[in-house]
Design goal:
The complex is a heterodimer of chains A (115) and B (107).
Chain A (H helix, E strand, L loop, with lengths): L2 E6 L2 E2 L5 E8 L7 E7 L6 E7 L4 E3 L7 E6 L4 E6 L8 E7 L6 E2 L3 E5 L2
Parallel strand pairs in A: 2-11
Antiparallel strand pairs in A: 1-3, 3-8, 4-5, 4-9, 5-6, 7-8, 9-10, 9-11
Chain B lengths: L3 E4 L2 E4 L5 E7 L7 E6 L6 E5 L3 E2 L7 E6 L2 E6 L9 E6 L6 E2 L3 E5 L1
Parallel strand pairs in B: 2-11
Antiparallel strand pairs in B: 1-3, 3-8, 4-5, 4-9, 5-6, 7-8, 9-10, 9-11
The chains are: A mainly beta (115), B mainly beta (107).
């Protein structure tokens, strides 16, 4: 049974940098793409980006200039870094497994950007 | 970018009712569509993938159909635990995108 556990700082100020990490327990770590998806309060889901075992990435163009997703295969972990935060980045951030469709999700990390 | 238009935004229904949600893609996505259920405060859960395939462990009262640009999601005989928000998701091209969601509420 695959489990994704995520953690990171939850309250940040404008212009700061968000760092989140997701650890994958059980199942295969290679052979999949590992995704970040976010959800602003009371709103729908927005795909942020993905990375695979080889480090190949795909990013949402709306975030690409501020976004970096990395992977540490020795720890079965992948991470998100989002710079120059604004209030519009306030959301619950989820990590998820999925080459195409997202079949396993982390528990979500609420992130608030406020001065 | 592919836009996903989901309707209705909300629906009120009773236990035992049949509920239908539609999702329209702004261009052909073949069958690269999934449906997710999200309970309040929880992560989404994959119910249907490839437009009509039932994810393992998901009850058979959930069903999906469609191809190309128009897709339908149906809950046959709504159960108390089905009151939630449902999202469609296209995986045909980048950036991946979701519908706006449909909240299924108790009548």
């Amino acid at each position: 049974q695959v489990q994704l556990q995520q953690w990171g700082a939850g309250r940040l100020k404008p212009s700061e940098t968000l760092s989140l990490t997701c650890t994958v327990f059980g199942g295969s770590f290679s052979g999949y793409y590992w995704n970040w998806i976010r959800q602003p309060p009371g709103k729908g889901l927005e795909w942020v980006g993905e990375i695979n075992y080889s480090g190949n990435t795909n990013y949402n163009p709306s975030l690409k200039s501020r976004l970096s997703i990395s992977i540490d295969t020795s720890k079965n972990q992948f991470s998100l870094t989002l710079t120059s935060l604004t209030a519009a980045d306030t959301a619950v951030y989820y990590c998820a497994r999925g080459n195409v469709f997202f079949d396993n999700w982390g528990q979500g990390t609420p992130v608030t950007v406020s001065s | 970018d592919i836009q996903m238009t989901q309707s209705p935004p909300s629906v009120s229904a009773s236990v035992g009712d049949r509920v239908t949600i539609t999702c329209r893609a702004s261009q052909n996505i073949n069958n690269r569509l999934a449906w997710y259920q999200q309970q309040p405060g929880k992560a989404p859960k994959l119910l249907i993938y490839a437009a009509s395939s039932l994810q393992s462990g998901v009850p058979s009262r959930f069903s999906g159909s469609g191809s190309g640009t128009d897709f339908i999601f149906t809950i046959y005989s709504l159960q108390p635990e089905d009151f939630a928000t449902y999202y469609c998701h296209q995986a045909y091209s980048f950036p991946r995108s979701f519908g706006q969601g449909t909240k299924v509420e108790i009548k």
